[in-house]
Design a protein that fits this description.
With 283 residues, the protein is α/β, with parallel strands linked by helices. The protein has 2 domains: 123 residues, Alpha-Beta Complex (Aldehyde Oxidoreductase, domain 3); 147 residues, TIM Barrel, CATH 3.20.20. The chain contains 11 helices and 12 strands. It has a 6-stranded parallel β-sheet with strand order 6-11-10-9-8-7.
Amino acid sequence: MEMMESSQRARIRQVIKAALDEDIGSGDVTTNAVLTGEEMGLARALLKGDTIIAGIEVFREVFLVQDPSLNVVLLKKDGETAGAGEVVAEVSGKLVSILTAERVALNLFQRMCGIAALTRRYVEETKGTKAKILDTRKTVPGLRILDKYAVKAGGGFNHRVGLYDGVLIKDNHISAAGGIARAVGRVAGRAPMMVRIEVEVKNLEEVREALSAGAHVIMLDNMTGEDMRKAVALIDGRALVEASGNVTIERVKEIAETGVDFISTGTITHSAPAADISLKVRS
């Protein structure tokens, strides 16, 4: 997985091993009954629709985890556009291994391409503005590392990966702490100095409170376009501004044009349609 950071590889292999174990269990009864185990062949990954490639190295890794003797040739790279009818990878070797790993490889690859393709649509809609498209923590449990990688392949950016690498004070934190100022004050005294403090707000009064409390990033939650513009003017560069909530492909350009720095949306990970990809064994 050359394009993956070294720190990601072990975690991704764990995901793959768990997925293979879930699918194969005590063995692939169909493939093991139909084939002798000696048959050799070649299979091609074929696109049935246009997409953005993401996770093609994960696709390869699934087959190699299942059987290191397999040979996988990748014909596209992550982030590239690919069209219907294109062959994007070839797998050769023992057919029993190819067919056993096929579904897991496709499931992960199709999902990642779908996320990347939807992310790219959002990115294209916001061209000409300074807004960056961010993901959220609304990912499939266990697949977050793949979901967030796919967002980057589509041209988006990652918000915090988990609860451990960023501060985001949301409405429930504010209620539990007794107000924005108290919540920010507690975080400032306990969080590492280099961690940015982000606060979720729902109206202009709360924007003022977050600014006064010293928030580094202010998230405008479910605000109208008009109120977003007012909030950006009120903040006036004293904090970064993120828009979130009710971010649709139809509305994202309007949001970007309010002057916000970031637009975060869970849609790109939790509602992206999987790309249509099949694996065909050459007869």
